[in-house]
Amino acid sequence: DVLVNQIAAGEVVERPASVVKELVENALDAGASRIDIDLEEGGARLIRVRDDGGGIAAAELPVAVQRHATSKIASLEDLEAVATLGFRGEALPSIASVSRFRIASRRNGDDNGNALQVEGGRVGEVAPSAQPQGTTVEVRELFYNVPARRRFLRAERTELGHIEEWLRTLALARPDVEVRISHNGKPLRRYRGDSASETGARLVDALGEEFSRNVLRIDHAGAGLRLHGWIAQPSYNRASADQQYLFVNGRGVRDRNVAHAVRQAYSDVLFHGRHPAYVLFLELDPRAVDVNVHPAKHEVRFRDSRLVHDFVYRTLQEALSGTRA
Ligand code: ADP
Ligand code: MG
C-alpha cells in the first residue's frame, strides 16, 4: 500500500524519538541482550545507541548506510521529500542523510572493529576502530542540514519525553533486554534484564514501586486468546490516561475496542469511570489480527473484535469482582 508506506517513511526521521526507535529496533534485530542509549539535549545534539548484538562485517558497513543516491537527500531542504523515501532497509540511510552519523561495529570473534562516518549523506571510508562486540551508532546534530526540520524540534524535555515513552513501551514488551539510558551525561533510567518476564521486576522499573504494589495480576486463556499482565487495583487512584499499555502479540498498540472493554469492566464492577491503569498483553492467532492497518499509528484490526472485546471484558470483570468483598 503506497500511502501507508509513505506515511511510515515520513516517520523514520520525524524527530529524535523516531531515530531512537529505528536504532533500538536494529539492535534488537541483531539479537542484543543489552542496549545503552546516550542522549544529549533531548536527542537533538546526540543519540548514541550501543548494543552487544551480532555486529556488522566491515564490508557490509557501506551497504548498511547507502541504499540510496545520497546526493539527493544531502541537498534536502523541504519536509515532503523525506516522505517519498521507502521504509524498509532505509532507516540508516535516511537518518545518516540528516545528521552527522557514525556507525562502528565488531562481530563476535573478529579481532577488531570498524567504523564508518557519514556527513549529511556523504559516506566516508571504513576504518579500523576500537569497539566492543556489537554495534554503536552515533547520530549527532539531527537535521543540522535541514533547517526546516531543525526548527520543528520541540523543547528538550518534550523530545526527551517522547523518547522515554517509546522506550518504556519497548521495555515492557522486552523484559529480557537490559536497557540503560543517560541524558546529558547523567544516568536517567535503567531497565534491568529480566528473563523471567512474569516476575514484574520490569513493571517496577517501567512504572514505579507504587504502581506495582497496587496491581492485580491477570492471566487467563480461553477461546484461542490469552490475556495476561497487570491492572491497577480499584483503590489505585493515580492512574492517568497515559498509564495504559496494551500489547497485541508483543507489539505495543492503541486499540479503542480493547480500551473500551477494560473501562467497561471497571465501571460495571466498581461503578466509577476513572482511568484504569493497566499493562496488558493479548496473545492470539496472528491470522486473527491485522497489525499492518497503520504502522505509523500503532493500530491493529481484529478479525472478530466482538470476541476480543468480550474476552477482555469477562477476564477483567472476574478479576475485579474478586476485589469487591
Ligand atoms: P532494516 O532494519 O529495515 O534492514 P536499516 O536501515 O535500519 O534497515 O538497517 C540496515 C541494515 O544495517 C540492517 O538490515 C542490518 O543488516 C544492518 N544493521 C543496522 N543496525 C544494526 C545493528 N545494530 N546491528 C547489526 N546490524 C545492523
Ligand atoms: Mg532497521
TrEMBL record:
Asked if Hydrolase is a keyword of the record, the answer is: yes
User: According to its UniProt record, which protein family does this protein belong to?
Assistant: Belongs to the DNA mismatch repair MutL/HexB family.
Q: What does this protein do?
A: This protein is involved in the repair of mismatches in DNA. It is required for dam-dependent methyl-directed DNA mismatch repair. May act as a 'molecular matchmaker', a protein that promotes the formation of a stable complex between two or more DNA-binding proteins in an ATP-dependent manner without itself being part of a final effector complex.
Provide one Gene Ontology biological process annotation: mismatch repair
Gene Ontology CC, one term: mismatch repair complex
From the UniProt record, which GO molecular function terms apply? ATP binding; ATP hydrolysis activity; ATP-dependent DNA damage sensor activity; endonuclease activity; mismatched DNA binding
Query: What residue stretches are annotated with the DNA mismatch repair protein S5 domain?
Result: 203-321
**Full protein name:** DNA mismatch repair protein MutL
The record's keywords, sorted A to Z, are:
DNA damage, DNA repair, Endonuclease, Hydrolase, Nuclease
What is the gene name? Answer: mutL
Q: From what organism does this protein derive?
A: Pseudoluteimonas lycopersici
